[in-house]
User: Fold this.
Amino acid sequence: MSQFLFPAREPVTTAIAGTETRFPVNRIFCVGRNYLAHAAEMGVAVDKNTQEPFYFLKDASNLVATGSTVVYPPKTANYHYEMEFVVAIGKAGFEVAEADADELIYGYACGLDMTRRDLQLKARETGRPWDLGKNFEESAVISPIVPKAEIGLINSGKIELKVGDEVKQSSDLNLLIWNVREVIAHLSQFYHLQPGDLIYTGTPEGVGPVVAGDVITGSIDQVGSISLTIA
Assistant:
């Protein structure tokens, strides 16, 4: 007889490029406003000298693989894409020095942080949490993880997103306000980072709405590509 009242949730995993081995997902951390131009388009000024990074989380159950078709989510009329560089953590760390942050990285992926923008902005205006706008079913999309051991450290490279054939986002990873080392070191001051954690490092400018029937495609140099169809 099962010891559970109802069936326990199956572990969430994602693909690793070039192998049938799966990457078990623990937590999904997302960095907010980590490109100056995106912060500006959202009506917010970011000063790295006086501010620290901030984060929100998505439940691992909301993760879907590239190539998926997802349903336009309920209770929104302004459903946005956000193309992101994802860092996969492969080693535990707490209060990690910036110089040692690379040791925690297992690999990299392309990600989409799908957002109910109208709900996010409503929450922001009233000083409430962003969960309804950010943390909902099928809101985190990911491509296969490329191991760092195969491609080395990534500090720069083109990041781009298209809706249909139209380029909507085009930037470079070297324009991150807080780079990967800084994000890992800072985040590890507040959390014991664990193997399986994913960090969505922020989106560049050019975010915008999609509607049913749209096909989103994106890519990051050395990392790969990602796609999503809106049902």
Q: What stands out?
A: The helical segments are 36-41, 117-126, 131-134, 148-151, 180-187.
